[in-house]
Specification:
By secondary structure, the chain is α/β, with parallel strands linked by helices. Helix content is about 30%, strand content about 25%. The protein contains 14 helices and 23 strands. The strands form five sheets. The protein has a seven-stranded parallel beta sheet, with helices on both faces. Strands 16, 17, 18, 19, 20, 21 and 23 form a seven-stranded mixed beta sheet that branches. Strands 12-10-13-15-22 form a five-stranded parallel beta sheet. Helix 1 runs parallel beside helix 2 and helix 1 crosses helix 8. The protein starts with a strand and ends with a helix.
């Protein structure tokens, strides 16, 4: 079946609970596939570190409801167990807008029915909802007959994904500052949407045996299973910074932390109840399309501590289309890889490693030379910053970068965050003029100069609030933008990129 781990809000410990489950399963030599709701890059790194398998993002804004279902079906059936980590609180999403005729995205607004047929399973509560009223009706804590019309801000929430996939939900509750009120929280979440099946709760940050007794006594009338109890753990902390958790590549003590989580997981969960819920089942009716491997080119993909924000599905698409991916490090390598026909710089934390990037002048020069010679190049967010003349860090210190773009990236306290609807203002490396794409921004930098011929005019996804023009497409062989894109429902984008790379291969002007 598989299971969704949801929180009653952000910061309740969803990621810790998820990693504890994954670590304990892997210690048992179980093959487990994980998923993450939303556009996040960092939580999936931790999942992959534990499971040894790439975590897959489930995001109907960046892709579509149908793609979410297909992605889950395709990857979950290859493992024994499957687990989905939610985003924010269970019902926290955004307003939905019709994406028009952009591939499957047009099905986005169809009430979550997804192609699975089961009404709204896409949101979190999936299969459970049907059982939601079951058994509760007979006691005084029966669920209210809440209307279950989709909330206007429920799209892309954990609940939306649970409904789409028809999966039960485990609700993680932070108990550090409550006792008897836990029942009101649990009852409210269970009864809010009858389509969501709350399989049970995990009580996190429990302070003492007496505290646990109070929590259990409060929950007992609800007959809602307690599937786990996690005590306050002062010795288990994952460091964070300005954009969330510190990525796995920067944590030398991570394996020891994962071992402690596995120890905790062995004793704090009700495995007799959890294992059947986590068991993955083959799903039918989700045919995956085959791609023609017609682009035999080599693409240099920057991947190190500074650049590591990539959706695995994007990398898979490039390979399925025939590309050979050559991973390399702008931090550590002496030059760019040989015999390549394209470059891909993902996001990450170049500002944290700006001094080291600046010192590697041979790589900076090689990148600039390759681009000026016509090398097709994608640079997203952190990658865009690397192509600037400078990165000016939080302390105001400037560090030289590749110098392809006549602007500097300045770090600041203001966070730019949210889904974007971006309309191409002109033909560029990846899309034609007037094409609409959907992406996500998440950064604390801004550019000192804006491009004279920007790639996109952007607006918020869920409304028409204009967010301005952005993106660099000059020289014409680059696509440098703060907007992160997932290509799952836009396969024409990697195809167009590789087509341009193939021209480099055909001209024999290899770097």
């Amino acid at each position: 079946m598989a299971l969704v781990i949801a929180g009653e809000r952000s910061g309740v410990g969803k990621t810790t609970v998820t990693l504890t489950l994954l670590a304990s399963l892997r210690r048992r030599d179980r093959l487990v596939q994980s998923f993450k709701v939303g556009p996040d890059y960092i939580d999936p790194m931790f999942h992959q570190h534990v499971t040894g398998r790439a975590c897959r993002n489930l995001d109907p804004v960046l892709t579509s409801e149908a793609y979410v279902q297909q992605c889950f079906a395709r990857h979950s059936q290859l493992s024994e167990y499957a687990l989905v980590e939610g985003v924010m609180g269970l019902f926290d999403g955004i307003g939905h807008r019709d994406k028009g005729n952009k591939g499957n995205k047009g099905t986005r607004g169809q009430g979550d029915k997804g192609t699975r047929g089961q009404g709204d399973k896409g949101t979190r509560g999936q299969g459970d909802k049907g059982t939601k009223g079951q058994g509760d009706k007979e006691n005084n804590h029966a669920q209210c007959s809440m209307p279950h019309a989709q909330s206007p801000t429920d799209f892309a929430s954990t609940a939306h994904i649970a409904r789409l996939l028809d999966l039960p939900v485990v609700l993680v509750i932070d108990c550090s500052r409550l006792s008897g009120s836990v029942a009101a929280i649990a009852h409210g979440y269970r009864s809010f949407d009858s389509r969501i099946k709350i399989a049970g709760v995990v009580l996190n940050r429990v302070g003492s045996d007496r505290h646990l007794c109070l929590l259990k006594d409060s929950l007992e009338p609800l007959q809602l299973p307690i599937l786990g109890v996690m005590r306050r753990q002062d010795n288990i902390t994952i460091p964070d910074r300005h954009l969330g958790l510190v990525p796995t590549a920067e944590l030398p003590e991570l394996n020891a932390l994962i071992d402690r989580l596995a120890d905790l997981g062995d004793t704090c969960f009700d495995w007799q109840r959890l294992l059947p819920l986590l068991k993955s089942e083959p799903l039918s009716g989700f045919a995956s399309s085959c791609l023609s491997a017609s682009f035999p080119v080599r693409i240099a993909v920057a991947r190190d501590r500074a650049f590591n924000f990539y959706y695995q599905d994007n990398l898979d698409l490039l390979q399925q289309l025939g590309a050979e991916l050559v991973f390399w490090s702008p931090l550590e390598d002496a030059g760019i890889p040989k015999d390549i026909q394209g470059m891909y710089f993902g996001g990450g934390f170049p500002e944290v490693f700006a001094q080291q990037l600046a010192k590697n002048s041979s790589v900076r020069d090689a990148v600039k030379t390759a681009i000026l010679k016509g090398m097709p190049t994608i640079a997203e967010c952190g990658g865009l910053m690397y192509l600037c003349e400078q990165i000016i860090d939080f302390e105001g210190k400037p560090w030289s970068m590749a110098g392809v773009l006549p602007t500097s990236a300045v770090m600041g306290g203001r966070l730019t965050l949210g889904y974007r609807r971006a309309v191409a203002l002109q033909d560029n490396l990846l899309v034609k003029a007037n094409t609409t794409v959907y992406g996500h921004e998440f950064h604390r930098s801004h550019l000192t100069l804006t491009p004279t011929q920007p790639l996109f005019e952007t607006s918020r996804y869920d409304c028409d609030e204009n967010m301005g023009c952005e993106g660099w497409g000059l020289p014409a062989n680059i696509h440098a933008s703060y907007v992160h894109q997932h290509w799952g429902e836009s396969r024409e984008i990697p195809q167009q990129f590789l087509k341009e790379c193939l021209k480099v291969a055909s001209s024999k002007t290899w770097i």
